[in-house]
Amino acid sequence: MVARTALVERLLAARTARLVCVVAPPGYGKTTLLAQWAERRGARVAWVSLDQRDNDPAVLLTYLAAALDRVEPIDPQLARVLGSPGAAASASLVPRFVAGLASMTRPVTVVLDNLELLANQECLDAVAEVAMRLPPGSQLALASRARPALPEALSRPRGRLLEIGSDELAMDEREARALLAHAGVRLSDAMVAELLERTDGWPVGLYLASVGVAGEAQLGVAGENQLDRARAFAGNGHPPGLQPSLALLSRLSEPTVAFLTRTAVLDQLSGPLCDAVLQVSGSQQVLETLAGSNQLLVPVDRRQRWYRYHQLLRELLLAELERREPALVPELHRRAADWYEDDGRPELAVDHCQAAGDADRVARLVAAVAFPAYAGGRVETARRWLRWFEDRGVVERYPRVAVLGAQMEALLGNRSSAERWAAAAERGQASAAPDRALDASVALLRSLLCRDGIARARVDAATAWAGLAPDSPWRATALLMEGIGHLLDGRAEEADPILARAAEVAEQVGATPAAAAALGERALIALDRRQWAEAGRLAERAVAALRAGDLGGYVMAAFVHAVAARAALRLDDPARASEHLARAVQLRPLLTAAMPHRSVQTLLELARVYLALDDPAGARAVLRQAREIIRRRPSLGVLPRQAADLAATLDETGQGAGGASSLTAAELRLLPLLATHLTLLEIGERLYLSRNTVKTQAVSIYRKLGVSSRSEAMQRVRELGLLSP
Predict the structure, then answer these.
(1) For a designed S-S bond to 349, which of 104, 129, 341, 367 qualifies (C-beta 3.0 to 4.6 A apart)?
(2) C-alpha span between 642 and 410 (Å, rounded)
(3) Is the N-terminal amide bond of 589 cis, ω within 30° of 0?
(4) 5-169 has which fold?
(5) pTM for the complete prediction?
């Protein structure tokens, strides 16, 4: 490794720079420079090497939290935040994560390598917020092929951003000579100057020249004049040409070239994995030889059992594989998928099946892993897998996948997306061979979406219960929906035992969301019967189920907390009621017509809580939201009448002061972004709104909170618990 002394010293001198951006095309030694700088910075360095799978805020921040925890134990609340699923958790994940950084007491250096692989804007916003909220004296360094699209607040004030580009990263004569000498290549001053001129100081061109010339001797390749060989490896000019790599490959043995190109389909390499992909034995020895003699591989674990190619080299090898053996590429990916699936890592198998274009197998794997990923907080990961089918126009071929997509979008409160996926599921079902399990799954989906009214939803639930396998975790949801159907038809006596059975079945099969919802519905029945103690007991069991399943971000969690708040008020525990109310309010943006029965039930319960708290403004706000859903989905049993009764009660009540409780769902959706350093224009871009619309909503928020600025608003919001984990 060549010491980049001058650049390292420049970085060390820039202690006031909050953000360091090292931006250059491939092969300029960005990672090497930051590694040398990090070593000089000392032990308090958190390093994260990014890949495509990190385009999910929960995944990115989980890795970052783990890296920071190795430097200094961080607030345990960060782990709890990252474990929360659902849209509400995702929307407020970034501000709650950076708030947890307050537990760090000393400066820290954070390095994010390969930032160009982050395309998700929420992830880039998270990076910016981390940079702004790290302890004083800390620095965040980014290595990227292109200048990242970060919020403008990150470059203010002047002097807080340091950028290093390709001109600074180009090697000078001293560094070039050191690189060649390290590889055992001895050239005259004139020869070194010629190589520098041919490469413009492009480090990877010089690197390939040194590695290639030195490696030939170790690999038994006869050579010509040393300078001629170096010229061939270095090529002419720099980025993006393949000439240097082709020159290197042309001088390696055919078995070595085959090993390099064929294993380039792998993100990481191990002996057993390479054996499986190449259908050979002895790959571990080859990996060790390559890593030791040619520096072509980089160890990624301390035991040196797993390796990876330098990103640029891998790209060059993949291009060569496509040129040499294009028909083999899908088969290599299929073999990798086989190995990962047999090794108990189906998510990694998904990536290789997608690369192989094996849609049937992708569908089978995604059906098994998508919902657990969502439930674990990796919402964007699950949606990425599902988008793969949409991007290829094959959703209808896989109605089971379409059912999952509809359920997930409904839980995220995305009505139009849920309906689009549901329509695809129904079209796929109509064209598929008779399949009782599929019919049951589609029936359950129809029940959850409740597009044709609560009576039809109850019938669909019964169909789902009869058709699902006895060990299916979805049977509990089918029973839950049947009980809700009876309850919303005004038959609580029939509903209660069905809901009790649903909770029992759900607990037996581990369907925690259904268990929490069933217990919440039973608590609601107990409240209507004026059985306050029983209602409190059932509500607390429902809340405990939420905690046990890390379900704080689900739509159903808003319902459970709303019911628990009402029960707490009846048990004369206003503090507990306020806590539950705040949790429910955080989730109000999820309450849409995507799952109308659940949303309206929750909003009416919130209205009752606000009335009990003598807060008519809050009751009116949630009732307006409920009536808008009822306008779209009027056939919801007793709910429209209950909404009308509450409206009549409010008509007899004074207007009340429009405080925080009167925030609209749109304003609540804005709150987590107001807690960041994004400008109003940038917030509008994230929400697909104009700057004027965002400004209008922000001013309304300030007025309702009784404050005059964004910072005061955020302080008040935190006092109210509206951004708490």
Answers:
(1) 341
(2) 24
(3) no
(4) Rossmann fold (3.40.50)
(5) 0.85
Q: pLDDT for 218-245, tens place per residue?
A: 434 444 455 555 555 455 544 444 455 5
For the chain, the domains span 5-169, 173-250, 452-658, 665-720
Can you give the pLDDT at residue 220? 40
Higher-confidence position of 76 and 691: 691
Architecture of domain 452-658 in CATH? Alpha Horseshoe (1.25)
The CATH class for the domain spanning 665-720 reads mainly alpha
Q: How many angstroms separate the CA atoms of 287 and 256, rounded?
A: 10
Q: Which helix (H) or strand (E) holds 255?
A: helix 254-263
Give the residue among 129, 157, 123, 84 at the shortest CA–CA distance from 674: 129
Residues with Cβ within 8 Å of 699's Cβ and at least 6 positions away in sequence, in order, are none
**Rounded Cα–Cα distance for residues 101 and 112 (Å):** 17
pLDDT given at position 218: 44
Question: Tokens for 549?
Answer: 């399943």
Based on its alpha-carbon atoms, the radius of gyration of the chain, rounded to whole angstroms, reads 30
pLDDT band for 217, please (50, 70, 90 cuts).
very low
CA distances from 108 to 72, 139, 323, 692 (A): 9, 7, 45, 38
Measured distance CA(79)–CA(61) in Å, rounded: 10
- Of 5-9, 83-87, 523-527, the range with the lowest mean pLDDT is 83-87
Residue type, 42: G
**Which residues are CB-neighbours of 363 under 8 A, at least 6 positions away?**
389, 397, 398, 400, 401
